[in-house]
Design brief:
- 2 copies of one chain form a homodimer.
- By secondary structure, chain A is α/β, with parallel strands linked by helices.
- Chain A has a single domain, classed as Rossmann fold (3-Layer(aba) Sandwich).
- Chain A has helices at residues 21-34, 58-67, 85-92, 103-117, 122-133, 162-168, 190-198, 213-221, 226-233, 253-259, 266-276, 291-297, 314-326, and strands at residues 12-18, 39-43, 49-51, 54-56, 140-143, 150-155, 158-161, 175-181, 203-208, 234-240, 243-244, 247-248, 283-287, 304-307.
- In chain A, the strands form 4 sheets. In chain A, strands 5-2-1-9-10-13-14 form a 7-stranded parallel β-sheet, with helices on both faces. A 3-stranded antiparallel β-sheet of chain A has the order 7-6-8.
Chain lengths: 332, 332
């Protein structure tokens, strides 16, 4: 299966498109597997929101924490060894308590606010935060766009902001549609465009993390020009299924697929992605638990490869990342 | 000396103009002495500033904490039993560490930010915070103005914002002048105007707390129309000297007076105040340690009264407040 490593020539960049959760785990795995060399992560900004006067970037922060090995491995978000002094007092004083904010996490949001108030761009701020958190090497983490894009969901209980749906309502309302407010006027972030344009002498392999396609990948891939940019510049695009044996490992992806009338399977996910982003994805990575379905589907879609995609800890994430670096893409 | 209590008729409101420090101590004393009935505090907003994306109102907060009996009695600012988890992490991450922010304090700033983001006015927000902190009774705490006024100091090291001078530079640069940016276009807060206009059937005694005249009182009293409003509506205005035996109990008042070429004494303070706000102040309260100077000065200024003004703890603050409520103002 690993007929040739992506990195064998040392001339290939790896670019991961990521939400939080599984995307952040894979980000940490790829960071460990590449040593951070020529490795970049583009983070979803559709979940970003303003809260308590601060700009909060949940997916970017999950990647920052994952790459600096400070993410809480149990919760899968926020900082390890977190304390809750401010949040306790906030709750005590009747402040908004639907979004949990740990003390260490809050320190990062405050520094981001200070840097943004100085007039720095979100990309610059993210790069500074990565350095301050001690993300090793030259790996860069960049928000998908500098422009304001906000994921909003239409549900059985009306339209609401993503965080309201995700945190306040725990994804309980039935989802009927998703829209990305502001995306028509948004541009891919200059740092990402620069990375794609600048590395003319290098090839780029793009990995779509096992992130929620509707809530994490679409707000990146639907940015005007983004899919074309990737089609044009990527040597190949490798997409990792977030659906394993008919279930999402975490989060509402399976529930949403079902509510949108899709088949809740790696095949259903692949069909939706291939339909929405035609000719973008070259290699489809499914979990080995779906090998039978993969065999059946491979007749029409030869570029499905299977492996153990479940990143239960850092070591497994690194092993999976190494497998991705070595994936041949020729389907067996 | 106490020929008749201000409150004997039950028809007099007490309005304190206050900075932090001594003003906040007197605020707590008057709150205890009045039971909070018909007692209001107007707080200086010249020290307010934006930090880490949040609006911080140091003097208002000191009064909020003093009246809710949650102020740290040793530091004289911030919350009692404070923790520093966020600040430690902020420092660790190389964030701005010149302004100390405790966890409990930060919770208040975050709630203020959330309420301001909802479009509420600073007066409304302050009233809500007072309730949430459990400030007993109907006592109201109101910022002097809703408009942006920012105290700036001209010093030997150039012009700087008040907090920069006060906290970052610890009042070390020599001060040559003070200005209140934005004050010409600012108006006294509607809640204060309403209080002064609305209580036509009641008389109002105004107390100027032992606060820094340049940094705490002037940003209130220099608001266009404010001094006239007080002259018109106050039955009398009682000013408490921040200078005791040639020294300020806390803060840079004495140092600034010296740098501005004033006599560093209760007499020097009185002269500056009487010159800047002619016919505003009816009763001058000096500390008993200055009784000899008071006797000598009383020839020209009969309305000087002396007592022990040092509020070393809550009980002493309440006793002093009770003395103020009973002050006859006729000079002996």
């Amino acid at each position: 299966m690993t007929s040739g490593s992506i990195r064998a020539d040392g001339q290939t960049d790896i670019l991961l498109l990521s939400g939080g959760g599984g995307g952040a785990r894979l980000a940490a795995g790829l960071h460990a597997a590449t040593g951070g060399e020529h490795f970049s992560v583009v983070t979803n900004t559709g979940d970003d929101f303003e809260h308590l006067g601060l700009m909060i970037c949940p997916d970017t922060d999950s990647v920052l924490y994952a790459l600096s090995q400070q993410i809480d491995p149990v919760r899968g978000w926020g900082r390890e060894g977190e304390s809750w002094q401010v949040f306790d007092e906030l709750t005590q004083l009747g402040g908004p308590d639907w979004f949990q904010l740990g003390d260490k996490d809050l320190a990062l949001h405050l520094i981001r606010a200070a840097l943004l108030a100085e007039g720095r761009s979100l990309s610059e701020v993210t790069a500074i935060l990565a350095r301050r958190l001690g993300v090793a090497s030259a790996a860069s983490i960049m928000p998908a766009t500098e422009d304001r894009v906000r994921t909003r969901v239409m549900t059985s209980q009306g339209e609401m902001a993503f965080q309201e749906y995700f945190v306040k309502h725990r994804c309980e309302p039935q989802l009927t549609a998703v829209r990305y407010e502001g995306i028509a006027a948004a541009k891919p972030s200059p740092s990402l465009v620069g990375l794609l344009a600048g590395a003319a002498s290098r090839s780029i392999d793009v990995v779509l993390g096992p992130s929620n396609p509707f809530l994490s990948l679409a707000p990146i891939l639907d940015l005007p020009g983004m899919a074309d940019l990737l089609r044009e510049r990527a040597r190949r695009v490798i997409a990792v299924s977030p659906i394993v044996a008919g279930q999402a490992l975490k989060g509402p992806a399976a529930k949403i697929m079902s509510e949108l009338g899709l088949s809740v399977s790696a095949a259903g996910w692949m069909e939706w992605m291939a339909d929405r982003y035609p000719e973008l994805i070259d290699v489809w990575v499914w979990d080995e638990r779906d090998h039978a379905l993969a065999d059946a589907t491979r007749i029409a879609h030869p570029n499905i490869v299977v492996t153990d995609t479940i990143m239960s800890d850092r070591e497994r994430a690194q092993q999976f990342a190494e497998w991705i670096l070595g994936v041949s893409g020729d389907g067996d």
